[in-house]
């Protein structure tokens, strides 16, 4: 590996860790807010990232908990996705990258990315349904604005995972013949 590629890989490792920590902070903040809102419902107007869902909470607690569950699950899935990326980058052997561990991690990344995309799409459609019923929840779209991008990215990662799996097969066959 050249010095430039090694430097880029180290920078990517640092950026991945920073994103992972940021997503963990976001998911942790959302979890704390969720449990706090269970015990102190008046806190609902001051949720994470200045999210005010007090009117929805007063009108329908089921709608509030449903939408907050979408937010929470998507945030947790994003954190888990980047945990897998961090694990892959930390443990990958760049001298011999085609191994079963790397192939499995890339496959997991595609499944989690697809799950995030599908859940974001369902949440966006649910938000649209609630908007048509008179709920004022325009501020929720920030949590699932990019559902199509995640679904498309899942397809790309799945193709890469398939290539990795085939590379592992070919490498194992070559190791057996030599």
Any descriptors?
single chain, 5 helices, mainly alpha, elongated, 178 residues, 0% strand
Structure description:
By secondary structure, this protein is an all-alpha fold. The chain contains five helices and no strands. The protein has helices spanning 3-39, 54-59, 61-91, 100-132, 147-177. α1 packs antiparallel against α3 (61-91), α3 runs antiparallel to α4 and α4 runs antiparallel to α5. It is elongated and about 70 Å long. It starts with a helix and ends with a helix. The mean pLDDT is 87.
Q: What does the overall shape look like?
A: elongated
Radius of gyration, CA atoms, in whole angstroms: 20 Å
Strand content: under 5%
Helix content: over 70%
Q: What's the total number of strands?
A: 0
Low-confidence runs = none
Report the sheet with the most strands, covering strand number, pairing sense and barrel closure: none
Order of helices and strands: HHHHH
**Number of helical runs?**
5
**What's the average pLDDT?**
87
User: Roughly how many Å apart are the termini?
Assistant: 24 Å
What class, by secondary structure content?
mainly alpha
Short characterization:
The chain has 178 residues and is mainly α. Helix content is 78%, strand content 0%. It has five helices and no strands.
How are the secondary structure elements laid out?
Elements: H1 3-39, H2 54-59, H3 61-91, H4 100-132, H5 147-177
């Amino acid at each position: 590996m050249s010095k430039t590629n090694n430097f880029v890989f180290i920078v990517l490792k640092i950026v991945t860790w920073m994103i992972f920590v940021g997503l963990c902070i976001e998911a942790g903040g959302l979890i704390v807010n969720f449990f706090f809102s269970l015990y102190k419902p008046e806190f609902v107007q001051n949720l994470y990232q200045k999210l005010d869902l007090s009117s929805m909470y007063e009108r329908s607690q089921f709608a509030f908990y449903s939408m907050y569950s979408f937010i929470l699950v998507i945030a947790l899935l994003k954190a888990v996705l980047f945990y897998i990326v961090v694990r892959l980058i930390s443990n990958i052997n760049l001298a011999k990258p085609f191994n079963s561990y790397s192939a499995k991690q890339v496959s997991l990344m595609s499944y989690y990315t697809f799950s995030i995309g599908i859940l974001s799409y369902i949440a966006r459609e649910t938000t649209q349904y609630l908007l048509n019923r008179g709920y004022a929840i325009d501020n929720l779209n920030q949590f699932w604005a990019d559902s199509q991008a995640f679904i498309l990215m899942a397809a790309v990662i799945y193709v890469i995972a398939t290539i990795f799996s085939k590379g592992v097969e070919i490498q194992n066959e070559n190791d057996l013949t030599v």
